[in-house]
Design brief:
By secondary structure, the chain is mainly β. It contains two helices and twelve strands. Helix 1 runs parallel beside helix 2.
Length: 195
Amino acid sequence: MTVQTGLSGFDPKAQDLYLEVALVGPSGELKASSRQKIKGQTLLSELEVPNPKRWDLSEPHLYSAQISIQSNTAELDRISQTFGIRSIEFSASKGFLLNDRPIKFKGVNLHHDAGALGAAVPKSIWRLRLEQLKSVGVNAIRTAHNPHAPELLSLADEMGFLVVGEAFDDWQRAKDKSLVFPSDNAAKSPEADSY
């Protein structure tokens, strides 16, 4: 697999810098690593994960890419990113395939808020909602109608949900909503036409 790393704020011409990438498996074991001298702002690291455990709806195995920037004497920066290894395919004859198996989406439309709690939803509430959805057979979420919190997306990865990430609910045209409401004096009463 290829890990692409973009750098900013480091000048590889000022000192010898190295990029280290470590892939850690679902059980915490080191699966692959690489180290290279940094020569530019974008680096590609080629790593091979032998016999990967695939991310699936029932067994959402997650790996971690731990990326660090090092000088000859110290670690300067570190970031970690979780990911799943899986294959997906859309086929006219078989539909959606996850890891070579046909899967039917059993989904819901999930807004970015939690009712009276508002839009700043604690992770514990997202977990509870996803557990409830999983208990009734839901395996897919459409994130209507805006980008959702990273906490929800990481829980979906962790708990085995497919996600259709929706950025906007209208692409080709602006919203066409009436600005006149029945409670306004300007609104025409439905009874007015019946006399």
